[in-house]
Amino acid sequence: MVDKKRSFPEENTWDFVAPEGYARWRENKLAQASELLSETPVLEIGDIARLTEAEHAEIYRRCEISNGVLYKDLSATSDVAVTSGRLRQFADNLGLRIAEKHRSAQEDGIVCLQETESAGKKGYIPYSKRSMNWHTDGYYNGPDQTIRAMVLHCARAADEGGENQFLDPEIAFIRLRDLDPAYITALMHPEAMTIPENDEGNGKIRPVSIGPVFSVDPDTGKLAMRYTARTRSIAWRDDPLTLEAVAALSQLLASDDPFIQNVRMQDGQGILCNNSLHNRTGFDADKTQPSDRLMMRVRFHNRVKGI
Ligand SMILES: [Fe+2]
Question: What is the distance in A from the centroid of ligand 1 to the CA of 20?
Answer without folding.
Answer: 34
